[in-house]
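Record format v2
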Amino acid sequence: MAEQNDFRTVSLDKTGTKLRIIDQTKLPNSVVWLEMDEIEQVWQAIRTLAVRGAPAIGVAAATGLAVASAKIRAKDFAEFYQQFCRMKAYLATARPTAVNLSWALERMKQVVLQNKMYDPITIKGALLTEAEAIAEEDIARCRAIGQAGLPLLAGVRAVLTHCNAGRLAAVQYGTALAPLYLAKEQGQDIRVFVDETRPQLQGARLTAWELHEAGIEVTLLCDNMAAAVMAAGLVDAVIVGADRVAANGDVANKIGTSGLAIMAESFDIPFYVAAPGSTVDMACQAGRDIVVENREAAEVTELWYEQPMAPEGIDVFNPAFDITPAGRITAVITDHGVIGQPLAENLAAAFGG
Ligand code: MRU
């Protein structure tokens, strides 16, 4: 993969006692790293999108819970477990839609239970080891997504993506962007049209930045321009990430994704979703069962402006995600290979359930 991918966006710090993340709210103007070991700091970092993107949120939560648990003072297992569960439950409230958060926290809880016969010091060590394992697995899963997705890019000159599902949204390689990094490494030049992704501008601030840093040709679009580039015949495929893939193949992803799927269908352009197994939620039957986060009105009315850009007190609709129905998705590119239609049947074969 490209050299630019050689750093980890989420990790333990050198001392092994703190969670270290790149502060995504400061990009692209400054590269700032944050270190933390208090559970409230980790919650805040996830809630405010300092760390964001489903896989990165999962790894940050696991690592944050491990370093915060390392500071628990408890005389026995019962006391340790009570404090651990309180922190785990609190962290789970940071954001609702990306399943990686609850998935990672649940894995951490299982480690505690599997080690309940040992003293708290041993359990703390096991938690740190598990957090590292989750991070390593994320890297491997994203590499596998890249390899699975690469053949789909044969002959492709340009793709369109939405939000940020690159290395910033994961530990290292990213999901939707992983096949593009691999294509670049193999000498295939693919232009990427990037939706700016209102209201938080993850496309403009993060995806455009990371692709540009990696030497990939990027063209930035306002969200309402996607149909125009498709109509002009400039887009050969759409690739987006996912925050949760339901068992029937419905996908929750950044608001605006479902509209892109409708456009892609109408222009006869393949629409791919890239996601690791940790984002596939076989316990969730369909998109209607996914909780979509609603965010504050100020993101829309004033976040990027010197002055408010809407009348004071105006009613604002600001869901952070939408659901793309399974039927509009050409295939889901996963670390278990490319899952094509019918998605429900093929997801069950790959991920059980
Ligand atoms: O609100 P965010 O920035 O956390 O949005 C989630 C996402 O990053 C996107 O929906 C992304 O496409 C899926 S996560 C790889």
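The radius of gyration is 20 Å.
The mean pLDDT is 96.
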